[in-house]
C-alpha cells in the first residue's frame, strides 16, 4: 500500500496525521476486502485552497471539509472484480497497485467540525479519511439509502480502529 501524504497546511498541526491517515486508509481497504495493494494520495490544506478546488472542479463557491477524486469507475460500490478490465486506467503500471485516487482535506474544517461536534481533531480527521475512502471505492450519499449505507460503513471503520466520539 502506498499512501502519499502532502501537508500544504501552513498552520500548526498538533496531531499524528500520518499515522491516522495511513491507519484509516488501510482499515477502509480491509473493511471493503480490496484484493489489491492500493495507492492513495492525501493533501492537507486550508479553507482557502479547498475553496478554490471546489469552485474549479465542482462549481461550488465555498470551502468544504473534504474532496474526493476517484480514479476508477464502479458499477457497484467496492466491486473490484471488473477493475482489471480497465487495468491501464486503474492500476499503476510500475507498481501494479490499484490507483484509488486523491483526497483533499481542509484542516481548518477539521478544527471547526471537531469543535462543533464535540469530539477530537484526531477523530474528525479519521472520519474524513474514512468518508473519502468510501467515495474512492464508489460509494455516494446523494440518496437516503446510499447515505445510510455509507454512514454505517464509516462508523464501523472508525470503531475498528478505536476512533469514537
Automatic annotation (TrEMBL):
Enzyme class per UniProt: hydrolase
Assigned GO CC terms: cytoplasm
Binding site for Zn(2+): 131, 135, 141
Cofactor binding, note field: Binds 1 zinc ion.
NCBIfam families: rRNA maturation RNase YbeY
Family annotation (PANTHER family): ENDORIBONUCLEASE YBEY, CHLOROPLASTIC (PTHR46986)
Protein name per Swiss-Prot or TrEMBL: Endoribonuclease YbeY
Species of origin: [Clostridium] aminophilum
Classification of source organism: Bacteria, Bacillati, Bacillota, Clostridia, Lachnospirales
Amino acid at each position: 500500500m502506498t499512501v502519499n501524504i502532502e501537508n500544504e497546511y501552513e498552520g500548526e498541526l498538533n496531531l499524528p496525521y500520518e499515522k491516522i491517515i495511513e491507519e484509516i486508509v488501510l482499515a477502509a481497504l480491509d473493511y471493503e476486502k480490496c484484493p489489491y495493494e492500493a495507492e492513495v494520495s492525501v493533501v492537507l490544506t486550508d479553507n482557502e485552497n479547498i475553496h478554490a478546488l471546489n469552485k474549479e472542479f465542482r462549481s461550488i463557491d465555498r470551502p468544504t471539509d473534504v474532496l474526493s477524486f476517484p480514479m476508477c469507475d464502479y458499477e457497484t460500490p467496492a466491486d473490484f472484480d471488473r477493475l482489471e478490465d480497465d487495468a491501464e486506467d486503474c492500476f499503476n503500471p510500475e507498481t501494479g497497485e490499484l490507483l484509488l485516487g486523491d483526497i483533499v482535506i481542509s484542516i481548518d474544517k477539521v478544527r471547526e467540525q471537531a469543535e462543533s461536534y464535540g469530539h477530537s481533531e484526531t477523530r474528525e480527521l479519521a472520519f474524513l479519511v474514512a468518508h473519502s475512502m468510501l467515495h474512492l471505492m464508489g460509494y455516494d450519499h446523494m440518496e437516503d439509502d446510499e447515505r445510510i449505507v455509507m454512514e454505517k460503513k464509516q462508523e464501523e471503520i472508525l470503531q475498528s480502529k478505536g476512533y469514537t466520539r
